[in-house]
Amino acid sequence: MPPGALAQVLCHLPVMEHPDLLVGCDSFADAGVFRLRDDLALVQTLDFFTPVVDDPFIFGQIAAANALSDVYAMGGEPKLVMNIVCFPSKSLDISVLAEILEGGAEKVREAGAIIVGGHSVEDKEPKYGLSVTGIVHPAELITNSNARAGDVLVLTKPVGTGLVLTAAKAEMAGEEEIAAAVQSMSNLNREAAAVMKEIGVSSATDITGFGLLGHAKEMAAASKVAMEISFKNVPLLPGAVRAAETGLIPGGAYANRDYVAEAVEAGGCEVGELEMDILCDPQTSGGLLLAVPKQKADRLLAALDQRGIQAAAIGVVTREMPGAIRVKK
After folding, report:
1. Do residue 52 and residue 104 come from a single domain?
2. Out of 151, 166, 251, 283, which could bridge 317 as a Cys pair, Cβ 3.0 to 4.6 Å?
């Protein structure tokens, strides 16, 4: 659903409050957080979507990694998982569903979590994802609302999954390009989250359907700061630029462009249509966007590199108009 349309619906719902509700749906947060006691809080999230690749097992891996990511983005540890399944059992062999679930289970095991059940419904199109319950110490909770002026913005995965997948559907993506995108989407954000907790960051979010700029806008707005992002420093998947140049733009990118238009206009933009298409590309199981104090940025990047994560510093947090995003070449 386009981010603007979702906001129009949610604004009419009553805001639920509780003294132990640390993070609810009245913010741009990645998950809900509820304090059970002074040293323990629950992190709750869910996500599911239609297949982004043809291989059922790999689709299960990607969908699971994507759902688990919200817990990692908040500094939490996934513990319990439930499968969410929509499946056309009258038109697809049940073995396809088995492969999807096996792929998801592999990622859940890798995360150190446990599948405890789930729910399925008959549908015309397959959909799969997870409801995830994690835990976090309230004092170690990381949100997307605490970025501070002077922080360095670090991205832990390359951008471009939507573009590459769109090119693949048009049979205009190379095997190596598809493989790189699949590998990126299948990778858990577990190691990146461990590093951000070890080094200490001001704020974090994961990059998914609203694209890099959409999620950056939400972090900036929630933190009441502005951001400056340099396109040249943003890591890109192989084939992403070529797909954008060819016009193979996923539909979600246009909705994301509309969503960030006012923020980018307020901040200023030095790049063209091509670059904006890439920065607004909807991501599946993208990386973490971290706001880290400047004095810690080099240590963070070095620690990520030691764990095999090719992260990059892509911008800075500034004191300009809250929520504004300046996009540089």
Report:
1. yes
2. 151
